[in-house]
Amino acid sequence: MLLSSLLGFWLPVVSFGAPVQECRRLFERREWRTFSNEEKIAYISSVKCLTAHHHERLSYTSSGILMPGSRSIYDDFALTHDMLEDFAHENAYFLPWHRYFTYLFELALRDRCNYEGAFPYWDWSLDLFDMKSSPVFDPDLTSGLGTNGDCISTDCFIHDGAFGDVTLAYPIPHHLRRNITFDDPATNRSLTDKLSAEHLFDIMRDTTGDFFTFQHRFSHVHNNLHFIIGGDMDSECPSKYPKEACDLTSFASNDPLFWLHHGQIDRIWSKWQSLHPDNFYAFQGYPLNTHNLSDSRYDPEASVSQKLDFDRLSTSVAVSQVFNHTAPPFCYVYVEH
Fold this sequence. Notes:
34% helix; 10 helices
């Protein structure tokens, strides 16, 4: 991370002899459907710019093998998400870790690709009753994020949108894959039910001051959207990848929709934080998966002093440093649509 990037977001200000950090600019995060065509093109171009930037680290797989193919900074985000999957999911660190991870992606867009526009989020609750017609599923080759993958004649590759021609490196070189479904094949229940604004409101209303219950219930909402998109977004491995290794991978950030989804996830956490004074700095929890208990990086007491690791994308930061996204280093606000 370059110092110039951070200084572009905030400045140290001396107050009563002590340096105080202040944002020199608050960047906007806006719902994707409010973007003009030109704004969509600018954002998509910056993301594709990251796919063209050669990686700046040795991008090794979990087995210690150098990732094959042409590796980019964009691929490094997918690898980092995979390497820290256990640490950053199914525990109290899920929301703070992804807040900072998404911020690092936005920072890369601005620093490496000179992006100046708003960062997008996708309020999928607006598309509850006609998900396939959501503006995020746009086939336009310059301003669209693509539609569904072709799971009949190809390995669920998408062939339209601006990312149909992008080759992703992880877990093996392949094109972006999606396999959109709206029902859980195991239960035949709708996967979209939990995405409603009413359900989100119920979660936020019922969990005042109770971060553990909030993030526990909210994690199911998060998971369902990954299941709906399928393919890379659900870490479904390419058919040529060994099946025995597939359960050990998590490369959801290969899909550009990941960043819009996690913009929305962070927005909902931000709204919950603002609902009540007891919410803003609320943080407690217990691992939701036993693999966390044997992870030396994980504190089962869910301490705000716990350092969040981001592999080589960034130095570690404490949970206590990520509560306020309107302060440095974040300096962003959500614009309601």
